[in-house]
Structures are given as structure tokens and as C-alpha cells.
Specification:
- This protein is mainly alpha-helical.
- It has one domain (26-123).
- The chain has helices at 3-21, 38-47, 58-63, 74-89, 96-101, 109-123.
- The longest helix has 19 residues, at 3-21.
- The termini are far apart.
- The protein binds heme C (HEC).
């Protein structure tokens, strides 16, 4: 075998092994929409994605579908982000019924603030 071939295989194996260790907690499982920062996406993925995605709840995904976020116009993204911050501040979302069954996905106050700060960034 040629030397470069062996180097490539060694490199590939190294990447496979290290990548198994460097995925920290909270790393998004699904690809985040391009303009939602990872730190905000991690919250949506854990607390909202079950319903607000292609595989989600019909009513929920018709109004807000993170799998379609990239195709929303900037105006629509701003409007949805405004609604998201509002719904989380008012504790309307995630729905309380859902939180009863999944208490561990309730966003913390710090997480709600992070989401609303993100809205502030988009509004600029
Ligand atoms: C158990 C399923 C479920 C989960 C989890 C959930 N939602 Fe919803 N959401 C819904 C449903 C159903 C609707 C539509 C009915 C309504 O407006 O009350 C909705 C509507 C919304 C709306 C209104 C959309 C619009 O523009 O009118 C926003 C914003 C929203 N959700 C944000 C969130 C956020 C943010 C999270 C996570 C923190 C979340 N939801 C988690 C079910 C869910």
C-alpha cells in the first residue's frame, strides 16, 4: 500500500476515535437552522423540537416548524422569534401538559433570557 493511503487511513481512524470523545453534553443532535446559534438551538431542540418539527404535532408545526426555519423570510423569522420569546416568558410554551410528562425539559429562567437576548440580536 502507498504511504499516503496508510496516512489517510490513520487520519480517518484518529478522527473517528477522537470525535467519539469530543461531543460534549448539549451538542445539538439535529443540524441547527443556519442562523440560530448553537446555544439557543440546544434549548429549542430539547424543549420544543418534539412538536415544532416535521415529525411534530400538526397544529404546532403549522405555526412554527424549526425544520423549515431556514426557508422563512427574515421578517417571518423575526416575528416567530418574537412569539417564541413571548411564549416562553409567559410560560405558555412548552405547554404545561407536556411539561408534566417531561419535567426535565422545562427551560430555566436563564434559558428564557438567552432566547430573548437572541431575539434582541435579530432585531438589531
Ligand atoms: C407538546 C407540544 C409542544 C411543545 C413541546 C412546544 N409547543 Fe409550541 N405550540 C404547540 C402547539 C400545539 C401550538 C399551536 C397552538 C397554539 O398556538 O397554542 C404551539 C404554538 C407555538 C407558538 C405560536 C406560533 C405562532 O407564531 O403563532 C410559539 C411561538 C411556540 N409554540 C413556541 C414554542 C417554544 C419556544 C417551545 C419550546 C420552548 C414550544 N413551543 C414547545 C405545541 C408545542
Amino acid at each position: 500500500m502507498k504511504k499516503t493511503g496508510r496516512i489517510l487511513i490513520a487520519l480517518f481512524v484518529t478522527i473517528m476515535i477522537t470525535s467519539a470523545f469530543i461531543i460534549p453534553d448539549g451538542t445539538p443532535l439535529n443540524d441547527p437552522p443556519t442562523n440560530i446559534p448553537d446555544s439557543v438551538w440546544a434549548i429549542f431542540e430539547i424543549s420544543c423540537y418534539d412538536c415544532h418539527s416535521n415529525d411534530g404535532n400538526g397544529m404546532a408545526k403549522a405555526k412554527l416548524n424549526f425544520d423549515k426555519w431556514n426557508s422563512y423570510s427574515p421578517e417571518k423569522q423575526l416575528k416567530k422569534a418574537t412569539n417564541i420569546c413571548q411564549a416562553m416568558q409567559d410560560q405558555k410554551m412548552p405547554p404545561s401538559k407536556y411539561l408534566k410528562k417531561n419535567p426535565d425539559v422545562a427551560p430555566s429562567v436563564a434559558e428564557v433570557i438567552r432566547v430573548c437576548n437572541w431575539l434582541g440580536e435579530i432585531e438589531k
